[in-house]
Amino acid sequence: MDVSRRALSIGGLGLLAASALSPARAMDLPIADPFDGTSDFWTAVEAYIYGYPLVTMEMTRRVVTNVEKPEGTKAPMGHLIKLREYPNASFTDVTAPNADTLYTTAFVDVGKEPWILSIPEMKDRYFLFPMLDGWTTVFQVPGKRTTGGGAQTYAITGPGWEGKVPDGVTEYKSPTSLVWILGRIYCTGTPEDYKAVHAVQDECKLVPLSAYGKEWTPPPGKVDPSIDMKTAVREQVNRMDAVEYFTLLAELLKTNPPTAADTEMVEKLAQIGIVPGKDFDKSKLDSRFAKRIPEIAFGRTMLHFKFSDGDVKDINGWGYTTKTGVYGTDYLQRALITAIGLGANRPQDAVYPTSLKMKEGLLGRAYDGANKYVLTFPKGQMPPVRGFWSLTMYNDKYFFVDNPINRYSISARQDLKSNPDGSTDIYIQHESPGADKESNWLPAPKDKFLLMMRLYWPDDSPPSILDGSWAIPPVRKA
Fold it and tell me: How far is CA 79 from CA 65, 226, 296, 452, in A?
């Protein structure tokens, strides 16, 4: 990845508050900077991009776990966080919330000993429990698609661990000590289904190997008052200067080592004082670079991503990528997904197309609740998924929209009505389309909004969004 020589595109990737990529047309512009031609500077920019996921994961862990006991979206290390209901329009803690799955999550440190996760029988209910390492790679993903709906138990072991896991337990080896379990369980949102999902959430267990098979209560967490609990994690990371950033990166590399495929990057890291297993040697970094590296790496490289590489698709006004969850040495893509959608699944599990504007002319036109829109699925061309699909409405800040029927997303669970020709219309507008059409109504605000589709477990054979043989139809004015 030679960012000093590469032409990087400016597009509509200003979705830092969202968990999907926006559609945009690319315009290649070369990067110009006073340090252009200074090889050490661009080596440092590459190092910044390389380490961005690991630093972001650690800062996320600090904020999420900096509580004494589970409360809301936070819990101490080793405690399961169980979200009990979907947020409403007053919820603004997390951008682009979903109203399809209830989260069951945890951060664990498997560097000292393995942790054991037990998942109860789910029967026909869709679920997935992706496990992310410190670099945001989904190294395992037990769930309906991969391991079925029966009860299952896993030992998550860390790098270098050697031992025997208990009988009946499957070992999942994490490449890093830091692990984020991001479980999602499908729920229709009715009182009856909430109760059913709460029951399986309560049957999920997470214990250290030394406590497996014993009565064990997770200890309370220790609150660190120096941790900023108000500023968004992404902002906290982005405002670090290079010395602070690389000092933290070097510390994290001691327990979250690079992979064998990172050999070339490891050699580059050493040139600016970062050697895995050792403290950062800041004497090897030109002090003039300290403020400029984050600005160039984040503001003018990661976000000005090269659309012509094919990593981001723009079809019928819907933008998305199928390169998430597993990145190899594509450090730029990995950093970009970290910035705009931390915790992204593998595409085989979920794809999140997003539409900011109606396809119209060269640039399109932003959605506005003053207009009425319709999304039409032709007969036999509903979203091809084996899990589920939904279409979610957000305002221009990526939060739910208050509406008289408390509907924030629409999917097959709304018992959608078809037209006489077999097609299905989704009515996207501020006012009700009429009682006879309300089953197909996705309420919009009075002003600007955007749309996000979730495709869980998309079909892997045509028609499929994974190979482009199926495309979401364009949204048009009614």
Answer: 9, 22, 38, 31
